[in-house]
Amino acid sequence: MSHANAALTPRARLRLAQLIVDRGWTHTAAAKMFMVAPRTAKKWADRYRAEGQAGMADRSSRPHTCPNKTRPDVVRQIVRLRWRQRLGPVQIAGRLGMQASTVHAVLVRCRINRLSHIDRVTGEPLRRYEHERPGSLIHVDVTKFGNIPDGGGHKFLTRQQSRANGRATAHRTGQRGKDYRPAIGTAYVHTVIDDHSRVAYAEICTDEKATTAIGVLQRAVAWFAEHGVTVERVLSDNGSAYKSYAWRDACTELGIVHKRTRPYRPQANGKIERFHRTLGDGWAYARFYESTKQRNDALPGWLHFYNHHRVHSAIGGKPPVTRLTNVPGHHS
User: Fold this and answer.
1) d(CA 134, CA 321)
2) Considering only the top CATH level, what class is 138-147+185-323?
3) CA distance 34 to 57
4) How far is CA 299 from CA 149, 202, 296, 303, in A?
5) Is-contact 9 2, C-beta < 8 A?
6) CB of 151 within 8 A of CB of 144?
7) Cα torsion at 51, 55, 61, 67 (round to 10°)?
8) Own/partner pairs for 60-67, CB < 8 Å, 24+ apart?
9) Which of 1, 44, 243, 331 maximizes the CB count within 10 A of its CB?
């Protein structure tokens, strides 16, 4: 496609060249008709004689040689400093003794000009993926939140008041830990999220054993089926529950292919890890709760808000449920 300021399109070039070559017009006369320079008319006429109609197409303006191009070894140094130390163009230019604009051009060419494109842990470019349809892959994991003592915890109260509430709760429940300290307990939130739509399912449990994880998976698969989604694969980390034979057998019974992430690579399960952060900000620590029960009761409502109303930046600023079809209560 011709650029915005081009005087001639490929079709006009062909007409110009044909007037000169086939009909015997002079370069000056043809150039005057198409309002271009005679030199331009001669260029297209010569190319038409040599290549025919195919020669009228646009060509790249990139030069055949570039003597001032940054050397490959310097490019490798720039990329290494960006990946490993996360330095900006000015800092990299200072270390290598070159212009910051040159460094920035190299970073843009290598598509690592934004730190958001680089993995925080490994320093390597992010490799994003998304399965093409709902149910093709679901992510499962467990996140933990400390239970809240009666009257509230330290997130919104002072440490002194929180400890007093913990002692009162332990006195009521009789639960004590090491050295007779109050044992408030932990909430294990088993989460399931669809890779394509980001629709989420979650349950609060008292442990993260294989039997509990299997029950959550079975109920999640049934819940997704009610929403018209057939689960085909499940991705988990290398937790003991997901490495058990019981989990393997449960996946086989459900007709699901189980896949595990590489060890020490939480980025592979990054969608659900990011959901855990949203879960904490939007539900667990969003407001003051006077008890664990009050927080637990708020989870279903927040999940409905997340699935049906909260816009998701990774899917074009729309709620996750919009990527499903014929879902009951879609607009409620």
Assistant:
1) 10
2) alpha beta
3) 17
4) 18, 8, 5, 6
5) yes
6) no
7) -10
8) none
9) 44
pTM greater than 0.85 (yes/no): no
Q: Per-residue pLDDT tens for 121-139? A: 555 666 667 888 999 999 9
How many residues are present in the chain? 332
DSSP 245-287: HHHHHHHHHHT-EEEEPPTT-GGGGHHHHHHHHHHIIIIITSS
- Residue 186 near residue 144, CB atoms below 8 Å: yes
- Amino acid code (one letter) for 188: Y
Which residues in the chain show pLDDT less than 70? 1-6, 116-128, 171, 174, 177-182, 325-332
Q: Which residue has the tokens 């000009």?
A: 113
Assigned token pair, 206: 């008292």
d(CA 301, CA 287): 14
| Cα gap 277→298, rounded to integer Å | 17
Residue-wise pLDDT for 79-122, tens only, equals 988 877 888 899 999 999 999 999 999 999 988 887 766 666 55
Phi, psi of 218 (to 5 degrees): -65, -45
Which pair of tokens denotes residue 28? Answer: 């000056």
Q: In one letter, which amino acid is 257?
A: V
Q: Which residues pair with 118 in a beta bridge?
A: 125
